[in-house]
Amino acid sequence: MTLKNRISLLVSLLFTILFGLASTLIFVLYSNFRKEEFRDRLEIKALSNIKLLVNVKEVDDQLLKIIDQNSINKLYNEKTLVFDSHYKLIYSSIDDARINWSIDDLKYLKKHKTFFKQQGNYEVYGVFYDTKDRDFYALISATDDYGKRKLLFLRYTLVISYIFFTCICWVLTSFMVKKAMNPLSAFHQKIKNINENNLDTRIESKSNKNEIDLIANEFNFMMDRIEVSYQKQKEFTAHASHELRTPLSRITSQIENVVADPNTSVERKSFLKTILSDVNQLTELINSLLVLSKIDNKNYENNEVHRIDEIIFSAIETLNKSFPDFVILFEIEENDNLDTALEIKGNKNLLEIALSNVLKNACVYSDNKQAKVKISTDNEHLIISVLNTGKTLSETEQKNLFQPFMRGENSKGTSGFGLGLRIVQRILNLHSATITYTVSDINTNLFQLFFHL
Q1: Is the pLDDT score of 72 beyond 50?
Q2: Residues 331-368 as b or e (16 or more Cβ within 10 Å = b)
Q3: Of 350, 355, 382, 352, which Cα lies nearest the Cα of 450?
Q4: Are the beta carbons of 357 and 398 closer than 8 angstroms?
Q5: Nearest CA-CA partner of 137 in 98, 176, 80
Q6: What integer is the mean pLDDT of 248-252?
Q7: What is the pLDDT of residue 294?
Q8: Which helix (H) or strand (E) covers residue 142, if one does?
């Protein structure tokens, strides 16, 4: 999970939990408030009935029932029972409500003065009323339909509000975190695109000095040090390769002169030819390293337009001089826009080196000293396909194919250093092109070069 998604999730979960706890607390507090309020209403009703019955002589139980029925404070499904000090029922309201009571309830009232309990859908309040002459017990039962409707409405309101605002919170949090993390995403994208060919890339930082800007500044300082170190390393490689070419050229020339001397014995010529072969391989390695260093130093401009087919013909001609036995078959796919597609912007010398290496690789590792070159196009690319038959690479070897000094199992008995395809990849990167390798069929190797149209 990305940091952006993790922050969004944590903030959203925090809000969800806090809002859920707040909604639960509000509901519980209001539920207790409703219960206490209804208890107070029952207490007032019970005490008023007792006082009317005891203190007003003109009020008998029938008149009290009429008063109860017409009271503005009448409760839903109300039932009132009043007992004297001997636990005798002296008043009962006239409705269908029932109160389950016992002598123990009245004794409890005498001791504790009041109680409040739930009986099914009814809530019962009991009160002990003590006068100078007599004691009275009152039990009143009713349902708080009005309060419960408000409580039910509050419950639905809280649940709907919880769902609605939780969804809003998740969406807004995701949006805000994404917006806040945009500089970090841009930072990541720039870092992702940095390679050996663009070590001069730097991250733009603003003046507000937030954490991302601080990281960007430190990253820029680090890239400065890396670039300087990398440039020194490349310059050393280039200078060393250049300096080594001169003595190697002299050694090659002297060996060739000795080999050409008719006074040199056959055994000595054979020995010198072996040394000459090793010197030539060393010269090829140094030339490859020099090419790589020049590519990294960006000494080549890519502003000229060239036809890729002409570069391929030139590469084939160069290859035939060194390997006259190799046969290269050439094919161009018919296309109305092919003439325009064949024109690419780049450095001719580098492209010729890249194509020569691919063609040489195809011919050297073929089982019939033959390769096929095909030029085609799709909607977005000019495609150069180089195909040969021979031993193919395993999946593990394919992953490291373009790494320097990488050679597969099929290279046994073949001279080389494993730098050719690395040079091809570097050159194509400079031209915003790519190269791929696939096993298109049994014992069939296919290299494809893709140039953007």
Answers
A1: no
A2: eeeeeeeeeebbebebbeebbbbbbbbbbbbbbbbbee
A3: 382
A4: no
A5: 80
A6: 84
A7: 66
A8: strand 135-143
Q: What is the DSSP string of 152-170?
A: HHHHHHHHHHHHHHHHHHH
N- to C-terminal Cα distance for the chain? 37
Burial profile 101-111: b = 16 or more Cβ within 10 angstroms, e = fewer: beeebbeebee
User: Which residues 6+ apart lie within 8 Å of 115 measured at CB?
Assistant: 105, 108, 109, 125, 126
Task: Write the CB contacts of 245 (distance below 8 Å, at least 6 apart in sequence).
Answer: 283, 286, 287, 290
Q: Who's near 272: CB < 8 A, 6+ residues apart?
A: 255, 258, 259, 264
Higher pLDDT, 297 or 100: 100
Residue 52 · residue 63 · CB < 8 Å: no
Other beta carbons less than 10 A from residue 398's beta carbon: 15
Assign 72 to helix, strand or coil: coil
Q: Which of 42, 237, 24, 231 is nearest to 125 (CA)?
A: 42
Cα separation, 451 vs 449, in Å, equals 7
What's the pLDDT tens digit per position in 113-171? 888 888 777 888 888 888 777 788 888 888 888 888 888 999 999 999 989 988 898 88
Closest Cα partner for 122 from 199, 3, 206, 42? 42
Question: pLDDT (tens digit, 9 = 90+) per residue, 7-50?
Answer: 888 888 898 899 999 999 999 999 999 888 888 888 887 787 77
Q: Tokens in use for 289?
A: 């390293």
Give the E-state strand segments of 267-325 in sequence order.
305-307
Question: Do the Cβ atoms of 335 and 426 come closer than 8 Å?
Answer: no
Tell me how far the alpha carbon of residue 303 is from its chain's centroid. 38
Instruction: Tokens for 198, please give them.
Output: 């663009």
Q: Are 289 and 419 in contact (CB under 8 A)?
A: yes
DSSP string, 29-65: HHHHHHHHHHHHHHHHHHHHHHHHHHH-TT--HHHHH
Whole-prediction pTM? 0.50
How many whole angstroms separate alpha carbon 187 and alpha carbon 203?
Answer: 7
Mean pLDDT of the chain: 80
Within 10 Å of residue 191's Cβ, how many Cβ atoms? 12
